[in-house]
Amino acid sequence: MSDEVAAADLAESADVAAARRLQRALMASGHDRPEGDACPICFDLIELPVHEHSMRNACCMKRVCDGCIFAAGQRGINGSCPFCRTLLPRVDDDASQLARIRKRADKGDADAIYFLGNKHYFGELGLAKNVPRAIQLWKEAAELGSMDAHYQLGDSYYYGDGIEKDEPRCIHHFQQAAMKGEVQSRHMLGAVEYENGNYQLAVLHWMISAKMGYELSLNSIKDMFKKGHSTKAQYAEALLAYRDAVEDTKSPQREEAKRL
After folding, report:
1. Left, alpha or beta for 33 (phi > 0: left; psi -120 to 50: alpha)?
2. Which residue from 169, 174, 186, 213 puts its CA 20 to 30 A from 49's CA?
């Protein structure tokens, strides 16, 4: 065997070993939702999907649950942020809202940079829709540790939305977020494994995210059970844990807010 062949074999072995270590770390971590998924006022985890049951204001970039927003309104706190009490700009005052986001983004606030990326992506607050700019901002936010940005980048590489499809990069970003408890990224890792025919690994990913209260993952496990790729015991285990996780996100104020 030549030195070049031996070196190539050694490098391949090192890559395989590194991949196995990463896979072990991936499956052993990220089983609990991150601190950022909890409301900073009541400290309870926000129901999934988080963006449907909470609001983030540009003043402090804190995501407050609908229940605490409702409770603040009951106490007469309607024109101010429920968390930091900063007076909120008018709903139609795009310039003021954008200025607040940019001010925090300029200081290196990862959440603000990610949030600004979203505004470019959707063309909100008077900005023209600009997907390349959104992706650039998400990359900056991801480098600063934003799990939401990692998820959005993974999603963009997965679908080829504004950027060329790239499965390795897609998986990388989903992995970075999933290992820190980002539920949607964990679910998407399951989707990628399913598409690649790795059904058992897909179920393992979905078991983790279903147990954190993600309904799409629970439904995916149910579908896999119907197709013979998961067991009845796995589905039952996921269902019980899912129900417990959802129950932990409930409160009288949140239930009242849903009825409005």
Report:
1. beta
2. 169
Residues of the chain whose pLDDT is less than 70?
1-12
Which candidate, 34, 44, 37, places its Cα nearest to that of 248? 44
End-to-end alpha carbon distance in the chain: 74
Tokens of residue 196, six digits: 């690649």
Please, what is the average pLDDT of the chain?
Answer: 94
* One-letter amino acid of 172: H
pTM: 0.91
Cα–Cα distance measured from residue 49 to residue 252, given in angstroms and rounded to the nearest whole number:
19
Q: Mind listing the domains of the chain with CATH numbers?
A: 32-88 (3.30.40.10), 90-180 (1.25.40.10), 190-245 (no CATH)
What pLDDT was estimated at residue 19?
Answer: 80
* pLDDT (0 to 100) of residue 228: 96
∠ CA 52-215-121, rounded to 5°: 40
> Taken in order 175, 181, 182, 186, is the CA torsion positive or negative?
positive
- Name the nearest CA neighbour of 216 among 240, 186, 236, 176: 186
CA-CA distances (angstroms) from residue 249 to 56, 73, 144, 187?
18, 20, 28, 19
Q: Residue 216 is inside which H or E element, if any?
A: helix 215-226
Query: pLDDT at position 90, please?
Result: 87
Q: How far apart are CA 221 and CA 175, in angstroms?
A: 20
**Residue type at position 156:** S
Give the position of tokens 């008018």: 90
Q: How many CB atoms lie within 10 A of CB 120?
A: 21
Closest CA to 153 of 198, 190, 184: 184
